[in-house]
């Protein structure tokens, strides 16, 4: 029987890892699989993903992050689970959104903000405070310009 060398190199996602990923995606509305932690990202792409989530005012109570560097089975398994070759990976309500490149594109277009608001994962208090500070800064700038 002929066996393709390509098929022989494909790993199979273990049932245990699949179940752990599925459980993680059920427990929290926003899940980021990343290299490192939010306070100590271990690659520039993970740092950028965390920065985008911060700019989007994601409610920290609705966000879970998983350090794939701490678990090699998870590191390989999440790539197979999503059929996406890179990390970080963002999920919202169990649906794969994408990696950093897609997050940045969606952030710039406003599509990410809309998706997060529809998913009810934005920290409204932080967003209102940021808007108020923006308005105060705008008013201060206007006052300074008129003096």
Automatic annotation (TrEMBL):
Query: Which regions are flagged for Low complexity bias?
Result: 135-147
Which GO cellular component terms, listed alphabetically, does the Swiss-Prot or TrEMBL entry include? mitochondrial matrix
Q: What Pfam families does UniProt report for this protein, alphabetically?
A: Glutaredoxin
Domain Glutaredoxin, chain residue ranges per copy: 30-97
Q: Which residue ranges are recorded for the region named Disordered? A: 123-147
Entry's Gene Ontology molecular function annotations: 2 iron, 2 sulfur cluster binding; glutathione disulfide oxidoreductase activity; metal ion binding
Compositional bias (Acidic residues) spans?
Answer: 123-134
Q: Which UniProt keywords apply?
A: 2Fe-2S, Iron, Iron-sulfur, Metal-binding, Redox-active center
Which PROSITE patterns does the record match to this protein?
GLUTAREDOXIN_2
Q: Which GO terms describe its biological process?
A: [2Fe-2S] cluster assembly
Q: Which CDD domains match?
A: GRX_PICOT_like
UniProt protein name: Monothiol glutaredoxin-5, mitochondrial
Q: Which organism is it from?
A: Schizosaccharomyces japonicus (strain yFS275 / FY16936) (Fission yeast)
Primary gene name: grx5
């Amino acid at each position: 029987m002929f066996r393709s060398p390509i098929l022989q190199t494909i790993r199979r996602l273990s049932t245990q890892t699949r179940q752990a990923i599925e459980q993680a995606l059920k427990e929290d509305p926003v899940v980021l699989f990343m290299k490192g932690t939010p306070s100590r990202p271990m690659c520039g792409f993970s740092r950028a993903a965390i920065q985008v989530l911060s700019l989007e005012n994601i409610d920290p109570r609705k966000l879970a992050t998983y350090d794939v560097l701490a678990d090699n089975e998870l590191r390989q398994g999440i790539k197979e689970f999503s059929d996406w070759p890179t990390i970080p990976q963002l999920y919202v309500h169990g649906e794969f959104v994408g990696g950093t490149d897609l997050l940045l594109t969606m952030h710039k277009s406003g599509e990410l903000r809309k998706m997060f608001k529809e998913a009810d994962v934005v920290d409204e208090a932080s967003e209102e405070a940021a808007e108020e500070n923006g308005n105060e800064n705008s008013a201060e700038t206007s006052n300074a310009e008129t003096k």
